[in-house]
Design a protein that fits this description.
Order of helices and strands: HHHHHHH
Helix content: 55-70%
Number of strands: 0
Shape: globular
Radius of gyration: 20 Å
Strand content: under 5%
């Protein structure tokens, strides 16, 4: 009886997941299409000034479209720079702020493996974060890549979708624009909603040392 109940619960979870996925597919797909096309969304009054400010800050011309080669180079340059920054954060976390436990820097091989993992959005971890990583490493290093590597992956999906409709790989969009819009209009709102759900459930979070809960 116990096994059969577990099987029923498992099938129920699968059915629920499929139902939610199907229910969200059309509205979320339509919303993603608007984001990819640069069309207006209900978040524009709040996020549009931030988006424009980021373009000015980083010297991005939002009206410039890239071919497949330019788009690929931009993605690779971003990924390599992201890898280097994350690697340095992990290696030298003992010299960086928000490290009340006094964790040492990661060994070079583990820092390399972790950086590659998070930059490629596989997030494979061979360590206990609460026992080896400072709050700064987890926030500025790992958590930021949960956004940026995911945004880069979604941007590539957008470019591939455009490529099917474009002539010989021309007009695939602008990687930097896609990265910015996906981060602001898709991942940021989702993270706020999920963060509020965690807060409502009493999820502990602190910048001090370990807390018993």
């Amino acid at each position: 009886m116990h096994v059969s109940a577990m099987n029923a619960a498992g099938w129920g979870e699968i059915a629920f997941t499929l139902a939610v996925t199907l229910a969200l597919a059309v509205p979320l797909g339509l919303y993603l299409a608007r984001v990819w096309k640069g069309e207006s969304t209900w978040l524009d009054p709040v996020l549009k000034p931030m988006e424009s400010g980021l373009y000015r800050l980083f010297g991005v011309d939002a009206k410039t479209s890239q071919n497949w080669f330019g788009y690929t180079l931009s993605m690779l340059a971003f990924s390599m720079a992201s890898f280097l920054v994350l690697y340095l954060i992990l290696r030298f976390q003992d010299l960086l702020p928000f490290n009340p436990q006094g964790f040492k820097g990661m060994p070079s091989d583990l820092a390399f493996n972790t950086s590659v993992s998070f930059v490629t959005n596989t997030n494979w971890q061979f360590y206990g974060g609460e026992q080896s990583l400072s709050a700064f490493s987890q926030m500025a290093g790992l958590t930021s890549h949960n956004f940026l590597s995911a945004a880069a992956g979604i941007a590539i999906a957008a470019a591939v979708a455009r490529a099917f409709a474009a002539n010989r790989g021309e007009g695939l969009g602008n990687f930097w624009v896609d990265l910015t819009r996906i981060s602001l209009y898709v991942l940021l709102p989702l993270s706020i909603v999920l963060a509020l759900l965690f807060v409502a459930q009493g999820e502990p979070q602190t910048l001090t040392g370990h807390v018993d809960a």
